[in-house]
Design goal:
Shape: globular
Largest sheet: 7 strands, mixed
Number of strands: 22
Strand order of the largest sheet: 11-10-12-13-15-14-20
Protein name: 2-oxoacid:acceptor oxidoreductase subunit alpha
Pfam families: PFOR_II (PF17147), POR (PF01558), POR_N (PF01855)
InterPro entries: 2-oxoacid/accept_OxRdtase_asu, PFOR_II, Pyruvate:ferred/Flavod_OxRd, Pyrv/ketoisovalerate_OxRed_cat, Pyrv_Fd/Flavodoxin_OxRdtase_N, Pyrv_flavodox_OxRed_cen, THDP-binding, Transketo_C/PFOR_II
Helix content: 25-40%
Keywords: Oxidoreductase
Distance between the termini: 57 Å
Radius of gyration: 26 Å
Amino acid sequence: MTEELEVKELDNVVVRFSGDSGDGMQLAGNIFSTVSATIGNGISTFPDYPADIRAPQGSLTGVSGFQVHIGGGKVYTPGDKCDVLVAMNAAALKTQYKFAKPQATIIIDTDSFGQKDLEKAQFKTEDYLAEMNIDADRVVACPITKMVKDCLADSGMDNKSVLKCRNMFALGLVCWLFNRDISLVENFLRDKFAKKPVIAENNIKVVNAGFDYGHNVHASVPATYRIESKDKVKGRYMDITGNKATAYGLIAAAEKAGMRLFLGSYPITPATDILHELAKHKSCGVITVQCEDEISGCASAVGASFAGALAATSTSGPGVCLKSEAMNLAIIDELPLVIIDVQRGGPSTGLPTKSEQTDLLQALYGRNGESPMPVIAATSPTNCFDAVYSAAKIAVEHTTPVILLTDAFVANGSAAWKLPEINELPEIKPHYATPDMKDGYTPYKRDAETLARYWAVPGQEGFGHILGGLEKDGDTGAISTDPENHDKMCRIRAEKVARIPVPDVEVHGDKDDAELLIVGFGGTYGHLYSAMEEMRKAGNKVALAHFSYINPLPKNTAAVLTKYKKVVVAEQNLGQFAGYLRMKIDGFVPYQFNQVKGQPFVVEELVEEFTKIIKS
């Protein structure tokens, strides 16, 4: 075919790459996301992969997916369902078609739909499209495996290595469909495989083969598509995951505070990438220690904090359980420490690669004794930078450990991020002991306004002191079992956290006359905001109050939550935030929307449920 296809301009589109967990779907999706972010599109991604280290090839449980929502403007969610589904084998089509819109274009590798492939995917007939009620006119059926083998026949690569390049053919085909500049993909691959240029060039050859296939046969589609960026803000952008943004936020905070950054950690899904990323930045003065277990990871960070570092430890829910004793040591010693909890599905090992918000009450109360700790929740992949920066600022200025809650959805997901200017970030001033305290310093001397103790770093002459897990006298710093002193110290530690200034919670939408106020926290922001906007378009009066600061709560919390006749708290647990708010605000009795599926909210479901509440 030589005639030109129509090029349609779209506001947004959702693409889902799916295949075996060894088919490179995460890489293909990441490259397409990065290229889209590079040209100024808004993006939101959702990697969805199995917990199995390597499930049997072609099995239903071994399918790995990567969904990306691309828009001309700001994008808030990865999308409920996709406009384009890439299914590299029969199992991928069987399990992932439910995520496709009825009119979606489906790209399949016909070489992976043989009789054995169909049996593994539990198809009952060889006519798999009819069996799933899929219109064949919407399917781009391409012999991807054969074409990749032909493309690399003279490369000298073994068969296993050749098959690993199939994802690049699918990527090239998708790039053609959306008029992406293929040179951007080539640059990405040359950077990624800089030490293996032969592999880079072979992958580039396959990407171009996929692009050319689409161009030459027009791939059975009526049009190709272009998504133009709108409201471009000048600056440098990158596609960034929440875990990488968290790592960068810690580096920036240490730089701003004039401190060395120390991370004591133990690998755990889905938080490990924070350790991996920080380990790359020794040139920035970053110290990383991969410890033998979760307890030592946190304990080493407590020691580093005592020695004067900006200390952090990263983990997920099961690791927080193990770290709790060391975290409590930081509380009674009033040492700065940032604890990053990338929440995943539980209890126990639970759903290691899936996302929940079920660690909230553990973060607030999951330690022995009266052990108050500030808790902050990141709302998006890019917000992870700001949230961890704020956590570090609170930690060193108020001499307290701080918990940052992210989750697998925002940690592994990505978005287009405008790189900040370091001189525009808020100032961070560690609450150090002052020179005039020399020779008269005691460890619990406090600022009268904030109640933060003055922090003396070991090695300063005239500032010698001892900290430990036993209660201390508030005046002398000596070990004390006096009941009045213990009561006083518990109240001071709680009041110190309560006095930390945090921004007011902002109300979006119809804040003056909403029929329903939606309330959420953390990583559900994009879905709740999108649901609010959809309902407003339908003529409903709806507002959203989304919380980043959990402890202490913003000062306007009670005023906001008691202003509206109907309030619904939506969260990915069985009601932890709703219960916490009821405890903090007299007479507050909200509606609740709770799911614990290990998957992000579906905007369509939210709209349906919230509309029922308005009409009830």
